[in-house]
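Rotation project, supervised by the postdoc (A.L.). Task for the rotation student: set up a whole-complex structure prediction and record inputs and outputs verbatim in this book. Inputs entered:
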Amino acid sequence: MNDTLFFEGNGSEDLPAFLSALYKKSELNYPKFFKMDKLCKLGVLASELMIRTTTGFEEVPKNEIALVLSNNASSLESDRTHANAISNKQNYFPSPSVFVYTLPNIVIGEIAIKHKITGENAFFVSEKFDAELLQSYTDILLHTKPTTLAISGWVNLDGQSVEAFVYCVKNLNFKQENTPGINRDEHLHNSKNIQHLYSL
Amino acid sequence: MSIYIIQKTYNTYTVYKMEVQEIVTSLKSQIVEQLNLEEIKPEDIDTDAPLFGTGLGLDSIDALELIVLLEKNYNVKIEDPKESKAIFASVKTMAEYIAAHTK
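Outputs recorded:
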């Protein structure tokens, strides 16, 4: 966080253990976390740490905050778990708490619930990380009322492949749109910068 | 013989009480595991405390999960949905319902 290493796993734990350890380190104190699937845990922790370092986040009205996330594997981990639960007709006990996570945009829902965010949201599934898609859709929202701040990124989970990249972008000039000057979000929020941050 | 009958009556009552108590103990572990209550230990669950609202603070998805738990682990189905509120009032009421409906 803020260019310093916040947490490092021991390298031998599995993903659930890593996420639990990061949760404890984060002092999230949010029991609902344990009911989430792994993709949601990943998205909630990543966004939580990013939000904590975002100056002025709490001052932004919740209906002005948009969430734009993307990934490649959709909700495949929970889809597989659910598929296994219903594969045996003689032992057919699908779990409601697994089934509710068989959509990727539930990640957005969990983040929104955690932070009481009520703005626009969208979840995109694409073959690979698509900086242009994130930039263009987020910019559309940032130039549409009431959105003034967006949390965007890529939260992907498929077996051993785990990635969480989230960033926050503000439209600093939105409320002074008639004021001459540089629209900073257009300069900084471009696909090249997003791709660079993702690649770090 | 009369002593035997009294003992039998007493034993029957004792067996029933133990069955409910055993179910309570099992239920607490199953609830913690099934509902992923990782910060709660089975022994922390108050047998008489409300499962929803206060107490464990379970939600609607948890309620569905408890219905599956009864069916999967005890082969007990809730015939009348109107009974759900009373059945899932606490671990004790769940255990009593299981004891009364286990075939």
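Student's summary: Chain A has one domain: 15-173+180-199.
Supervisor addendum: The mean pLDDT of chain A is 90.
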